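Quick one, tokens below. Sequence please?
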């Protein structure tokens, strides 16, 4: 088991609107070591069907959130809702690991080269702890919400196979 002693690792969620009008969320995380003066690390990039900050430990706020928005997480037009995952400890979603991203994407909003769509930041946060055990990462993230408040969220991310990952609230 390895534990990162890094704190204040930046993370963002970008709404990626594609030319065909479909959308997904690109979740970008600065890896452990990022704040140790080595900012050459690229950002870990995971594609999600909806907002990571909407995952709830008890499973609420995911499938039913389309009918009942959660306090502190106002709806952003075009952002897909999070599907619930039966049998998981809480609401969960599949992730796909995509190519690492440049640090500029922590702040970038706008068109993507080669007509691949447009990105817009929908949530920014700070990873306060990062614990790795084999193919599992346990993270604690403080999200800066659109309401001007912050929310602490504990997440577990499991690498299932190849580019397939799963995330849920713990």
């Amino acid at each position: 088991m390895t534990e990162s002693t890094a704190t204040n690792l930046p993370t963002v969620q970008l709404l990626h609107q594609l030319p065909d009008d479909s959308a997904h969320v690109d979740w970008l995380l600065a890896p452990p070591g990022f704040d140790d003066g080595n900012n050459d690390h690229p950002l870990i990039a995971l594609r999600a069907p909806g907002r990571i900050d909407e995952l709830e430990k008890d499973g609420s706020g995911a499938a039913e959130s389309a009918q009942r928005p959660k306090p502190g997480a106002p709806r952003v037009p075009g952002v897909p809702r999070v599907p619930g995952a039966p049998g998981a400890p809480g609401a969960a979603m599949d992730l796909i690991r995509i190519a690492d991203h440049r640090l500029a994407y922590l702040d970038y909003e706008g068109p993507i080269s080669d007509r691949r769509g447009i990105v817009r930041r929908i949530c920014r946060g700070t990873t306060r702890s990062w614990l790795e055990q084999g193919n599992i990462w346990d993270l604690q993230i403080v999200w800066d919400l659109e309401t001007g408040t912050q929310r602490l969220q504990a997440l577990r991310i499991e690498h299932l196979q190849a580019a397939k990952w799963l995330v849920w609230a713990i």
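Confidence is low (pLDDT under 50) at residues 61-89. The two ends are 18 Å apart (CA to CA).
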